[in-house]
C-alpha cells in the first residue's frame, strides 16, 4: 500500500491510500470519492506530463508519499 | 484550508475499493520478505556446499599426484643401489652393455618403421592426377627437375588439386614476364583492336587478365607418364577463330516456313545491307552461269542461255532500272539551298529586266515633261533659260568644277576679267534700269518743253515699248547663242568662246563657278525691285508735275488778281486737287498691296566680315554689357580668323606663297625640267657654269648665284619666295653627281595677312 498526496492548489489536498498496481483511472475514482468531484473531470499532472488513465502507478514510477497535481477540466 | 488533508483510513478505503471493484489493499509486504530470506539462506547453503566439495576434490587430487610421484620414484635410489647389489665394476659394465644393446634395438625398430612409412606413402602411383604447373617443353629431357607443391590457400572444402612446380622454372618465368612488362606493350591502341575484330566483343580491360599460367601444365599419370592437357589449349585456339568467317557453309539448307530468332535478326536488318547481299547473290548467279557456259555443251539450251545472259549481265547498268525512282542526290539540304539560290537569281534577273524597261519608260515620260516645261519657260525670256535647258537636256549642272585648267584660269587673270564680266552681266541684267534712267532723263528734258501729261505718258509708253523690244531682241540673241552653244557642246564639256557673245561669256562664267547661276527667287526679287523703282520714278515725276502745276496756278492768280470767279475757279482747282490726291493714294495703296520687302539683317564686325547669328549675338551682348571677352579668348578668335583667311586665299594647286608657279617660271627661264639646289653633301648651290664645267665653287660665286636666283624669283612671282640650300655636312665635298632638290620656304605670310586684320577705325 502506498500513500499519495494529490493537491489542486485551490484548497483541496487529498491523501489517498492505494496499491502500486492500481491504474491512474482507479486513483482518480478514489480521489473523486474523497473530494466529491466526477472522476472524468480530474486531470493528474506532474509538471507538464499528464497521466493517462490506463497506465498503472508502478509504470509511472509513482512511489509512496509523492505529490501529484490535480486539475479540473 | 490549504493544510487540511482529506484522508481515509485503510478500512474505509478498502470499502471504497470493493465498491469500485478493486481488490482491497494489502496492508503488509511481509510474505515477500520471508521468501527472499529463505532464498538467500538457500543460496548461501549452496555456496557453502560447493566450496566444501571443491576442497575435497582438491585434497583427493593432491593425494593422487603424490602417489604418482611416488610411483615414478619407485626404483632404487643411488643410496639404495649399493645396498641391494654388489658394488662391482664388472657387473656395472655388463649392465651398461645390455642397456646399450636394448637402446640400439629400439632405434633400429624406429628407423625401420619410418622407412616403411615413407616407402608406403610415396610411390609413383601417389602422383597420379597431380598437375605440374609447367609446360612439358620447359622441362628438358635428361635433366633432373625438383618439383615442389605449390603454395595454395588451405580451405575447408579442399577441391583445389595440388600442383607441382619447380622453383627454378618459376623463377625463370617470372624473369621473362618482367622483361615483357618492361617492353611495355601498347595497352590503349586504336579504338578497335585486332582482338576485338576477332572476338566481336572486347572484354573490359582485357590487358590485365593473364590466363596464360592457369592453362599451362600437364597432369602426371600414375605410371610416371605424362597425361597432356594441351587439348584444352587447342579448344581455346579454336575459340580465337570464332570471330572469323566460316568458309564452308551449308549449301543444302532446308527452307523452313518460319525464321528462327537468329534469322529474324538478319531479316530485320536495314535494306542497304540486303541490297548488297542481293547484288552479291546475283553476281554469284552470274558466275555460276558463266561456269555453266564454260562447262556446258554447245547445245540449243546453252545457246538460249547465252542469248538471255547479256540482259542479265547488263542488269547492273541503268538500262533496265527505273531512273526516275533513283535518288542521285545524297545531301538533300545542300540541294535545297542550291535550288533556292538559283530561284533567287532567276527572279533577280527578271526583276532587273523589268526594272530597266520601266526605267526607260519613265525616262521617256520625264523627257516629255521637260519639253513641256521648256515650252512654258520659253515665255520668260531670261538668260537662265538656255542654261536651265542645258542642265535638263544634258544632265549637266553648273557646279563648280575643279580641274587644273580651271584653277589656272582662276588664278592668273582673276580680278580684272571678273570685274569686266560682272559689268557685262550687270548691263545685261539691268538693261531695263538703264533704259528707265534714260527715259527719266528724257522726260525731265521734255518736261521743260511741254506741259502736257499725255505727251509724257506717250513717251513713256514708247520708251517702255522700246525697252521691251530691246529685251526681246536680247532674248532672241541669247536664244540663238544658246542654240549654237548647245550644238557646240559635246560629251566632254567645251568651254564657250567669250568672243561669240554675252551669253557665251555668262555661260562660261557659270561653268567656272565664278558667277552663281541665277535662281528663281533672285529673278523674282529683281522683278519686284524693278517695279518698285519704276513706281518710285513715276511718283517722282508726278510730284514734279504737281509742283509745276501749283506754281503755274499761283502765277496765274498773281497775274489776274482776286475775283469771285477766280475764287470759284480756285475752289474747282482745289476740288480737282483733292480728287487727284485721292487717286494717288489709291494708286499707292495698290502698289503697296504687292509690297513684299525683303529684309536681310546683316551684321559686320570690325574687320567687315559678315557675322553669323551667334557671333552677332555675342557682339551685341558685349556692346550691351560694355564688356568683352578676355585676352586669351580674343587672341584665339583672331587666330582662327587668320587661318580662315589663309585658307580662303590658298589655291588648291599651289602653295600659299606660289612656289610652284615660281619654280615653273624658273625652269622655263633655265630651259631645264629641274632646278638644282645643291650637289651632294656640299650644301652648295652651283651656278649653271659650274655644273657645266664641274669646277669647284667659290663663296663669291655662290653668293652671286643666290642673288641671281632671288632676283629672278622676285621679278617672276608676285608672292615672295626664295630657295634656300639645305646644309648637310658642309665638310664633305665628295660625290659631285648626287643632286638634291629641295624647297625651303621663308614664311612671310603672316606679314602679308596681318594688316588685313588691323582694326578699321
From TrEMBL, chain A:
- Write out the GO biological process terms: cell morphogenesis involved in conjugation with cellular fusion; mRNA cis splicing, via spliceosome; positive regulation of RNA splicing; post-translational protein modification
Q: Which GO terms describe its molecular function?
A: protein tag activity
Indicate the segments forming the Ubiquitin-like domain, all copies. Answer: 2-70
| Keywords assigned by UniProt, alphabetized | Ubl conjugation pathway
Chain ranges passing through the membrane = none
What CDD domains does the record point to?
A: Ubl_UBL5
**Any keyword Transferase?**
no
GO CC annotations? Answer: cytoplasm; nucleus
Instruction: Note whether NAD occurs among the keywords.
Output: no
PANTHER family referenced in this protein's UniProt entry, alphabetically: UBIQUITIN-LIKE PROTEIN 5
Q: Which named protein is this?
A: Ubiquitin-like modifier HUB1
What organism is recorded for this protein?
Anaeromyces robustus
Print the organism lineage.
Eukaryota, Fungi, Fungi incertae sedis, Chytridiomycota, Chytridiomycota incertae sedis
From TrEMBL, chain B:
One BP term from GO? maturation of 5S rRNA
According to the record, the residues making up region (Disordered) are 26-82, 269-309, 359-389, 439-494, 546-572, 686-761
Arranged from A to Z, the UniProt key words for this protein are: mRNA processing, mRNA splicing, Nucleus
Renumbered to this chain, the Basic residues biased-composition regions fall at 62-74, 269-281
Specify residue ranges for compositional bias: Acidic residues.
Answer: 286-295, 372-383
Report the subcellular localization. Answer: Nucleus
Annotated Basic and acidic residues bias: 29-61, 359-371, 439-477, 698-708, 736-751
Task: Show the ranges annotated as biased composition (Low complexity).
Answer: 709-722
Gene Ontology cellular component terms for the protein in this record: U4/U6 x U5 tri-snRNP complex
Q: Indicate, by first and last residue, each region the UniProt record lists as having compositional bias (Polar residues).
A: 296-307, 723-735
Q: Does the keyword Nucleus apply?
A: yes
Which family does the similarity line name? Answer: Belongs to the SNU66/SART1 family.
Q: What is this protein called?
A: SART-1 protein
- The organism is Anaeromyces robustus
